[in-house]
Design a protein that fits this description.
Layout lengths: L9 E6 L9 E5 L13 E5 L6 E10 L13 E4 L6 H14 L3 H8 L5 H27 L29 H6 L3 E5 L4 E3 L5 E3 H15 L3 E5 L3 H14 L5 E3 L6 H10 L7 E4 L11 E7 L16 H12 L2 E6 L4 H8 L4 E3 L8 E4 L17 H10 L5 E5 L7 E4 L15 E2 L8 E2 L19 E4 L3 H11 L4 E5 L13 E6 L12 E4 L2 H5 L6 H13 L7 E4 L4 H9 L2 H15 L6 E7 L1 H9 L3 H5 L2 E6 L2 E8 L4 H24 L10 E4 L8
Parallel strand pairs: 6-13, 6-14, 9-11, 9-12, 10-11, 12-13, 15-24, 16-22, 16-23, 21-22, 23-24
Antiparallel strand pairs: 1-2, 1-4, 3-4, 3-5, 7-8, 17-20, 18-19, 25-27, 25-28, 26-27
């Protein structure tokens, strides 16, 4: 910029950088040649003061004057004229980052896919063609105004008719959506047919019915589901009632061009339903009327990338910012949603009780056949499966994929471990070379370090081994395996044994004639704060795939989880779990933040916290590379704690930069803070 000349406009930009010290808006002068093209939401490149580097950035707003008193650098270039960053997405990204003590640029990388030039050119050409057609239509309308004064312009798309919400008696869910209310809705454990002959989960039909209510009022709806199987249910249900122009799929399973195209479609002038996985909650939509999160307790909703914000929290922030209706829809709600119900933030909506599944816990039955009652598949389960196979498919849910989840030395019994990383060995299929479950290294020529034995034996049964055993037990019956390596979403309506790991169960037309839930004790033995609610959720989702009144046999599990499933009082179970957490001051009764780094860095971060918060800190404890502490605090203190820890993260990053500038031989470890980790006490 010429010294002494005021810029024609000032662009306030967010630099796309992982450095926490750059997580704020910077002012740049807009060159005169770009004044008409630089608008909020476009991508630009900007010069950085250090080493003459050029960085990409987002234009957040354009103002007439800068509050900065000095001279402004000019924008380097306009990267793209398409405003892909919507104002509502920027506000949400900023709020999400602030809540998690992270950077807004990290959130925007999740929200906006990489630029696709061909897609942009096609979108710009279509927009110019539409503008030209609209101008021609306006000219024709003005010319014919005297001849046809009563003519009305045709709508871009026909209006959407709101569908009635089925399976719910006393609660007016339509009124909840139109009144922008919030609710935890218990899904109906049922499969329903579509007009096209497919069978979908009833929760998918409910989500689509709620979406049509929002669309009928001219609002967008955002539907977030855990994975591709659930996405197929929703897309099938949407295709039955809406034209393709009203449906926008936006998920990580798409290619970058398809995701980019969907992002631009979501900014349509017509009301649409945007459906996808956790990142869909960051989709652009200025007139969002409804946000639905399906099965929020699913691990797929936990974001593995910084700032690690759970989809549930993103939905809560979006609903608050845009005053939308908010629905958490699931068979078994999470303790996080149960807390919101108990404090009155969410309404408690339950379906017609006539659709309760028929669950039989074998652990609560009297043993009639001695040791056989304690087998992995007791006689009750065998009898139910044999009878059901005369009419259709049977689902068998197991804990682990593969052939043998664990291997042990056949001589001394010690668990066989990888010689490379120490992880447990397993077999993916019968006769396969043992491999490490952690690093994948093949254990060729393995020898036991305890007794030097070379023979291995299986410990437990995975999906493929269970399928082999059931194939021998039911000769002539088709056996199907569905796990992470086999993406099955549907099976035929014929006698078959379907062995599936939790979360990978395919759909059978009309529902399974029986469901066997195996390995319950092994699932509950996993070390996790949320193991009980995760197991109940997985069992409930499998039970919902059964045909009406078909037996669902829960093997080897008693106590509160079995009672909750048998009586289908799943909210009561979540309430009991929450009460236990409240007594222990564990999440979600309180919020937590894990602080990891050098001993000095963690100590300095903890010193920055208020005294009452610091007194509730667990640790620090020694971990590889430094220390780790778990900070517990009430929800009302969230902004204060996030701000304090974020300041320490920035300071640690600046100190590291200074140390590198002084020519030290190695980089100092960076302080890392993670809020609301789903497993805060894991190693």
């Amino acid at each position: 910029m010429v010294p002494g000349r005021s810029p024609a406009a000032v662009a306030r930009v967010l630099v796309d950088s992982p450095l926490p010290q750059l997580d704020r808006l910077f002012d740049y002068a807009v060159p005169a040649a770009l004044v008409d093209e630089v608008v909020p939401g476009v991508r630009v490149s900007v010069p950085l003061r250090s080493a003459g580097r050029i960085a990409d950035a987002w234009v957040v707003e354009v103002v007439a004057e800068s509050e900065h008193g000095g001279e402004l650098s000019e924008l380097e270039a306009l990267v793209s004229p398409v405003p892909v960053l919507a104002p509502e997405v920027w506000r949400l990204a900023r709020a999400v980052a602030d809540r998690a003590g992270g950077s807004a640029s990290d959130v925007l990388r999740l929200a906006v896919p990489p630029r696709q030039v061909r897609v942009e050119k096609a979108w710009l050409a279509a927009r110019e063609a539409a503008a030209s057609a609209s101008a021609d239509a306006d000219a024709d309308a003005d010319a014919d105004a005297d001849a046809d004064a009563d003519a009305e312009p045709e709508a871009a798309l026909p209006p959407v008719e709101a569908l009635p919400v089925q399976h719910y008696r006393s609660t007016d869910l339509a009124g909840l959506v139109r009144g922008r209310g919030r609710a935890a809705v218990e899904a109906v454990p049922l499969l329903v047919p579509t007009e096209g002959g497919d069978w979908i989960a009833a929760w998918a039909a409910t989500a689509v019915e709620l979406a049509t209510i929002a669309l009928a009022d001219g609002d967008d709806a955002i539907l977030a589901v855990p994975d591709h199987r659930d996405l197929e249910h929703v897309l099938t249900a949407l295709a039955e009632v809406l034209p393709p122009e009203r449906i926008v799929r936006l998920d990580s399973g798409q290619s970058n061009p398809d995701r980019y195209r969907a992002l631009l479609r979501a900014r349509s002038d017509d009301a649409v339903v945007v459906v996808g996985n956790r990142s869909v909650l960051l989709a652009p939509s200025a007139r969002t009327g409804l946000v639905v999160v399906v099965d929020d307790g699913d691990e797929s909703f936990a974001e593995p990338l910084a700032p690690y914000v759970h989809a549930r929290d993103t939905a809560l922030l979006r609903s608050s910012q845009q005053s939308t209706a908010l629905v958490f829809l699931s068979h078994a709600r999470s303790t996080d949603v149960q807390r919101l119900v108990e404090i009155g933030f969410l309404a408690d909506v339950r379906p017609d009780p006539r659709y309760q599944p028929h669950v039989v816990p074998t652990a609560q039955q009297a043993a009639q056949d001695g040791f056989a009652a304690q087998a992995r598949i007791p006689s009750t389960a065998w009898q139910e499966a044999r009878a059901a196979l005369e009419h259709g498919p049977v689902l068998v849910q197991v804990a682990r994929p593969g052939h043998a989840p664990r291997l042990a030395c056949a001589d001394c019994g010690d668990i066989a471990r990888c010689p490379v990383c120490g992880g447990p060995l397993h077999q993916r299929s019968a006769g396969a070379v043992p491999a490490c479950a952690w690093c994948g290294a093949l254990a060729v020529g393995w020898a036991c370090p305890t007794c030097e034995g070379t023979r291995l034996r299986s410990v437990g049964s995975g999906a493929t081994r269970t399928a082999d055993e059931l194939g021998r037990a039911f000769p002539g019956v088709k056996v199907v395996v569905s796990d992470g390596s086999r993406r099955l979403t549907r099976v035929d309506d014929e006698p078959a044994v379907v062995v599936a790991v939790r979360g990978a169960e395919p759909v059978a037309p009309g529902g399974y004639r029986a469901v066997l839930l195996l390995d319950g004790e092994r699932m509950l033995a996993r070390e996790s704060l949320r193991v009980a609610e995760d197991c109940v959720r997985g069992w409930a989702n499998a039970a919902a795939l059964a045909a009406r009144r078909a037996p669902v046999v829960l093997v080897g599990v008693g106590g509160a989880p079995a009672a909750a499933l048998a009586t289908w009082q799943l909210p009561r179970f979540a309430s009991g779990e929450l009460a236990d957490r409240r007594d222990l001051r564990f999440p979600p009764a309180v919020r937590v933040a894990t602080v990891t780094g050098t001993t000095e860095g963690v100590a300095r971060a903890l010193e920055a916290l208020p005294d009452d918060v610091r007194r509730e800190t667990l640790g620090p404890v020694e971990v590889p590379g430094g220390d780790r502490a778990v900070v517990r605090f009430d929800y009302a203190r969230g902004a204060e704690v996030a701000q304090a820890l974020r300041a320490e993260v920035v300071r640690a990053a600046v100190d590291r930069r200074k140390a590198l500038g002084q020519g030290r031989g190695r980089a100092l470890p960076t302080l890392r803070v993670r809020f609301d980790d789903v497993e805060p006490f894991a190693d």
